[in-house]
Specification:
Strand order of the largest sheet: 19-18-17-20
Shape: elongated
Strand content: 25-35%
Largest sheet: 4 strands, antiparallel
Order of helices and strands: HEEEEEEEEEEEEEEHEEHEEEHE
Structural class: alpha+beta
């Protein structure tokens, strides 16, 4: 059965389906995609879906109207799914259309802006979590068991330098049905050689790559401007290297 474009449009008008269109020959309505909206019912092609205008966003498919960015965000382009906050330390949330403080920032006294959060110095053997809280060993245990690890029994300790909990990982077969076993994880090690030199070793299964000499010095110069990264007392030692994303 062939359905004309007029028939498809009539079907949508009867159903009152705004923000949808019915392609020629189909009774299945299709929502306007993200970044667009459909202001009227009875559309028969995607051409009826209008791009979101500037200073508006369309985060979901099937919208009948665009959503304004609000006073604290902007969007100079058309057809966008989100807006950008105008102030430092804020992230735009499409769910409520508001700018919230990102990690490392907190609301200012007036509540409109975000300022960088100042963290207290961790004293008395306490170490800092990734969120900036200072915890002792007992507090780490409670925090990791109750908020991070899948169960309290999975708690294995914590890494005070990284500010992370150490939890028991599920077996490879349970976690990914054996697929992970076919793809060995990349391992990074910082090794101190017997001559006092240093090298960064990256191994991936049977493959191994090393970085040493001036290249490694260039890599670490921003992290070790005081010259404390030395191998003098750690010859023939090896330490794991973690890649961590930080703010500030």
């Amino acid at each position: 059965m062939n359905i004309s474009s007029e028939g498809a449009g009539l079907y949508l008008r009867i159903r009152g389906l705004e923000s949808f269109y019915c392609p020629l020959g189909s009774f299945t309505p299709v929502p306007c995609p993200k970044g667009t909206y459909g202001p009227s019912a009875g559309a028969v092609s995607i051409d009826s879906c209008l791009k979101c205008p500037p200073q508006h966003y369309c985060p979901l498919p099937g919208l009948s109207a665009s959503v304004p960015c609000g006073p604290d965000a902007q969007q100079p382009l058309t057809g966008q799914e989100t807006c950008a906050c105008t102030r430092e330390g804020q992230s735009f949330q499409t769910s409520d259309g508001r700018c919230h403080c990102v990690l490392g920032y907190q609301p200012a006294n007036n509540g409109d802006a975000c300022v960088q959060k100042l963290y207290d110095v961790c004293r008395g053997g306490k170490t800092r979590t990734q969120y900036g809280d200072c915890l002792n060993k007992h507090q780490w245990s409670i925090y990791c068991r109750q908020q991070v690890c899948q169960s309290a029994e999975d708690y294995r300790g914590f890494d005070g330098q990284l500010g992370l909990c150490v939890c028991r990982e599920p077996s490879e077969r349970v976690a990914c049905a054996g697929l992970c076993m076919r793809r060995p994880a990349t391992d990074l090690q910082l090794q101190c050689r017997s001559n006092g030199g240093m090298e960064l070793v990256m191994s991936n299964g049977s493959q191994m790559s090393t970085i040493s000499g001036s290249v490694l010095e260039t890599l670490f110069i921003e992290w070790d401007s005081q010259g404390t990264l030395q191998c003098n007392s750690h010859l023939n030692a090896s330490h794991p290297v973690y890649i961590v994303q930080t703010t500030g």
